[in-house]
Amino acid sequence: MKKIMTFAVCAMLAMTASAQKFGNINMGEVFETMPERAVVQKEMEELQAKYETELSKMGDEYQKKVNDYLAEQEKLEKSIADARAQEIEQLQQRIQNFREMAAKDLQTQQQNKVQPIIEKINKAIQTVGEKEGFTYIFDLSQGNILYASPSQCIDVLPLVKKELGLQ
Predict the structure, then answer these.
(1) Which of 12, 60, 113, 152 could form a disulfide with 40 if both were Cys (CB 3.0 to 4.6 A apart)?
(2) Is the alpha carbon torsion for 70, 72, 78, 82 positive or negative?
(3) Are 117 and 32 in contact (CB under 8 A)?
(4) At 8, is the pLDDT very low, low, confident or very high (cuts 50, 70, 90)?
(5) In contact, 146 and 130? CB cutoff 8 Å
(6) Which of 12-26, 88-102, 103-117 has the lowest mean pLDDT?
């Protein structure tokens, strides 16, 4: 009787283990095939080109002021030369500030435009996970779990906290 009970428990465990369904996906590959990605990439390239054009104009202005200053420096009164040198330094600082602002804006725009695409992909993964009965779906490109069945997963946080002696 004891052997039958042990066999039954082992059989149930084996069935439970075999009932779990794991999937994997390469999020990066899915992202690259999304038509929205090409639109975002084009928009970002256009925005970057605008910033580069403006930086180029600012750089040309800076170079002209430096060349003019160097050519006339010997003939200028000290106060005028100092004022022009200060103007050149301010322009250089403005260019640096613009470059930093442009980089931040490009990064923000990229995140804002990419986020809806990622959310769309995640929603599709959640739907597939639920419809197809997956326990877990892993992202091979980053090693993340993209989907975990709420009914088949156990949150082990309380157990780990207890093991570590945390409240």
Answers:
(1) 113
(2) negative
(3) no
(4) very low
(5) no
(6) 12-26
Sign of CA pseudo-dihedral 73, 77, 82, 85: negative
Please answer whether residues 121 and 31 qualify as being in contact, where contact means their C-beta atoms are separated by less than 8 angstroms: yes
Catalogue the long-range contacts made by 42-46 (C-beta closer than 8 Å, 24 or more residues apart).
43/109, 43/113, 44/106, 44/109, 44/110, 44/113
79 compared with 12, residue with greater pLDDT: 79
Q: Are 154 and 41 in contact (CB under 8 A)?
A: no
124-165 confidence digits (pLDDT tens): 988 888 888 888 888 888 878 888 777 776 666 677 677 777
d(Cα 36, Cα 27) in Å, to the nearest integer?
15
Nearest to 130 by CA among 23, 26, 27: 23
Contact by Cβ (8 Å): 27, 142: yes
C-alpha closest to that of 149 among 161, 137, 165, 140: 137
Q: Where are the domains of the chain?
A: 19-164
The CA distance from 112 to 137, in Å, is 25
- Given this model, what pLDDT does residue 144 score? 80
3-state secondary structure of 154: coil
Mean pLDDT rounded to a whole number for the chain: 85
φ, ψ at 144 (rounded to 5°): -95, 155
